[in-house]
Amino acid sequence: PKGTLFTIVVLLLFAAAVVSAVESDGESECANRRIYIRRLPTRFNLDLLSNCSDYPVFGDFCSFLANHGLGQRTHNSSHSWYRTDPYMLEIVFHRRMLEYACLVSDPDLADAVFVPYYAGIDALRYLFGPEVNSSTEHGLQLFDYLSEWDSPQIWRRFHGHDHFLVMARPAWDFSQPLSNDPPIFGTSFLESPEFFNVTALTLESRAYPWQEQAVPYPTSFHPPNLGFLESWMNRVKRSKRSTLMLFAGGGGISANPNVRRSIRLECENATNLNATGTGYANFCEFIDCSNGICEHDPIKFMIPMLHSTFCLQPPGDTPTRRSTFDGILAGCIPVFFEETSAKKQYDWHLPREEYDEFSVFIPKEDVVFKGLKILDVLMDISRTQVWRKREKLLEMIPRIIYRKHGSSMGLRSKKDAFDIAVEGTLQRIRSRKQ
Asked: pTM value?
């Protein structure tokens, strides 16, 4: 954390030089894209990182702070692969914002205002720490600071409609009703009237979001230049798909009917089927990722995904999965069982009208209660359709990854998940202000 703080300070000095150039440029490519970063006391962001080992129920996340939230490299010679924890997206996003090309130092010139608050990390003291019974207070100190203590005119100009922040957890974790007594799991940040106008970028949105917008879970792939991205995409394109379908995950072990249980049983039965003449060595592969054993070791699931045609993406504790983006990165066609698993979530990055072009949808009710075999559905998809879907996935890879900070100019020419999130946020704020 101390090293991170020093680097952030240096970057702020660098950003100041960029800012002055933007402000003197007048009507340029930054028109309607200017962003002001609120200057928060470190207790709202960097100081929170010093508590990285204080939540035994959540786990020690100190090692995941390395490389500005990307985590440690998977191995010493790696240039693009990291042991990334998705809950560190707030740090990753903050670092990328410091090199955003259209920063301004005058909030009156800004089209949007970024609040570098590590909301998900701060929430840990309410979710897994000693302040669980005070979870309705999450964010109130931040609101007081923004609206009363630090240049309150910035907030009052649009009553927070032009402010946005990143909350690296599902929105449900911040949606506990204020009336709950005693509190249940979650905080009430998104239920607080003080933040109703702020745009929150979350890993998963609620069914009817009006405050938040879901953005992709970070994968472990963060290329520093165009060469590493193109090298990976070529590997995906050349990879031989010897397995028809793959499920990497946990759950499904209870006797109660659910889609994960149905997947496990079908996959077990499929191992006894003869795949000769189908073009596949086997029909189904199951990667047991119970208890989070795969989460920070991409080798466990990325290589099997590279060798599979379809990746099954059933809902779990929540509708969405990081595995969806790991699969897309591997060129493994996602199979969804609920529309809330992706189609109703990530429309900035995965436009709703394109889902038929890159994915397969099988209603979970048909699988669990009507006996529909996933294998039968996937075997009926022609090789031409499979090829077209994979070509679409290859096209999508750049926009669902978060490239490494300080990346090359060549790679910056391709919009990544961060670029698209900022672009969508600016458009959303523009419509709100109007």
From this structure: 0.92
